[in-house]
Amino acid sequence: MAAFLKWLLRAESLVAAIAYIIVASLLLGEIVAREIFATTIWGSQRMAIYAAIYAGFLGLCLATAANSHLRPQFADKWWPSRWTHGIDRLGDVISAALFIWLGVVGLEYVHASYEVNETAPVIRWELWWIQSVIVYAFFSSAVRHIVFAIRPDLKPIPDFVEG
Q1: SS3 sequence, 88-106?
Q2: End-to-end Cα distance, the chain
Q3: How confident is the model at residue 163 (pLDDT cuts 50, 70, 90)?
Q4: How far apart are CA 115 and CA 57, in angstroms?
Q5: What is the pTM of this model?
Q6: Cβ atoms within 10 Å of 41's Cβ, excluding its own
Q7: CA angle 68, 134, 23 (to 5 degrees)
Q8: pLDDT tens per residue across span 98-148
Q9: CA neighbours within 13 Å on the CB side: how many for 113?
Q10: Rounded to an integer, what distance in angstroms lies between the CA atom of residue 153 and that of residue 120?
Q11: Is the dihedral of CA 138, 143, 149, 155 positive or negative?
């Protein structure tokens, strides 16, 4: 299980990094084309937006993998410390359920785009394959929370936790 999570993290990190490289390259290329050659790169801004969306949703996966989501900590001292382990596991189960629900809603959203053959303005790409990252990110995060609930030893300790 640990090897799978490590592989998944590397794959998602690589795709997110490639997406950011695409964003930077498209935007820089657009600036160079406009300022030096007095022209534009057709669809570059729209493509950069979609690449940024991919990177952002994969960032959700990476934050889940690192257990580094922002969360309210005001109630942390409400429970006896011996309950912490169980409450953490319950939190992972609830988070997994929430991500599964969001994944299903995302799947319906993407399916609707597919059914009506919705296309992106300017570049006229079908949107469903661009939107599919939404479904992937939610289900990937759900899988991680399920694993963390079953195997808490695989859940990283976030840097911001005291003690």
Answers
A1: HHHHHHHHHHHHHHHHHHH
A2: 27
A3: very low
A4: 23
A5: 0.89
A6: 17
A7: 80
A8: 999 999 999 999 999 999 999 998 889 999 999 999 999 999 999 999 999
A9: 18
A10: 43
A11: negative
Distance CA 45, CA 48 (A): 5
Q: Find where tokens 């785009």 sit.
A: 113
Task: State how far the Cα of 57 lies from the Cα of 68, in Å rounded to an integer.
Answer: 15
Task: Say if residue 27's pLDDT is above 90.
Answer: yes
pLDDT band at 69 (very low <50, low <70, confident <90, very high): confident
Distances (CA, A) of 136 to 50, 92, 132, 152: 15, 18, 6, 23
Could you report the per-residue pLDDT of 90-103, keeping only the tens digit for each?
Answer: 989 999 999 999 99
- Could you give the dihedral angle defined by the CA atoms of residues 109, 112, 113 and 115, in that order, rounded to the nearest 10 degrees? 160
What is the residue whose two structure tokens read 């939610």? 138
